[in-house]
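Lab notebook, bench 4. The sequencing result for the construct came back, and we need a structural model before the next group meeting so we can plan mutations. Quick request posted to the team channel:

Model the 3D structure of this chain.
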Amino acid sequence: MSDSRASQFSRRGFLAAGGATALGAFLSACGGDDGGSGSTKAGGGGDWTFTDDRKKQVSLPAKPTRIVAYVGAAAILQDYGVADRVKGVFGPTKLKDGSRDPQAGELDVNKVTIIGNAYGEFNIEKYASLRPEVLVGHMFVENDIFYVPPESKDKILALAPQVAISTGALPLPKPIERYAELAASLGADLNSAQVTAAKARFEKAAESVRAAAKANGGLKVLACSASPDLFYASNPGKNSDLMYYKELGVDIIVPNKLDKDDYFEGLSWENADKYKADLLLVDSRTQAIQPKDLGSKPSWKDLPAVKANQIFPWQPEPRFSYAGCAPILEELAKTLQTVKKVS
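Done. Here's the predicted structure in token form:
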């Protein structure tokens, strides 16, 4: 979960489409005023059903071929070979130079319609024009589909049923398993050589992290994210990857004054040294300020881990697939083997 989530969610979202009156007429023409309940049923009735992590079951006459997904979810489906069903994406998809954002994984971003490339961007007219059969997305907070702007949520959710996969407050293997189940329901072969090899690599990498954490015990680790005004210290009890790292023996610091969703503690830059750590896991996403640009921030240069150059690029929204997470675990294990006690 983004440690800059609070700052993101405080921004006013905007629609790429026109005024509310014209938009309402457009949605009505597309059959979008049914409150979103038309295709989401409590029981069967279709040849494709999937129960998401809100305990809502979607039932369709056939496997959906017109999916719109949060870009991270689309990247996961790409790993399982079923991304051809995804026609549109929202969330960080392309960088300013037009290249693929890391959030997109191996997804071919030129073959999907981008209906929003940043938080608050969600072009409802473009979304409706795709005739979506289902919307797929992460769910870090209960009943909150990530990157669906709250101010336009009702209009968006009225256009198609949704599948929300829980990606917060549970260890990393769980959302990986759930997305694998979704991919399988869409036609992915979980017994293919590619998928089984990725799973074996993930499991081996996890054991490498466990071994490194045990061999180099006593290290204090802080997961964090930087914004212009605040330094965010992450809670390993809520982020799926951090929860899993702790299970594997990594000693991740737990902040003691968390936000209302318990994901992080926001610290002023003057107080960025509140928690002493030997290793910093620093948010590497495009919306976060990177270490090379933090030299002017109070306390940053004086942090023991910064002085020792013990910084690991952290992806708070990992690609929740075995293929997506195995390389992250491998790099973390290598880092833990070399970090020195400095705090």
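The mean pLDDT is 88.
Will bring this to the meeting.
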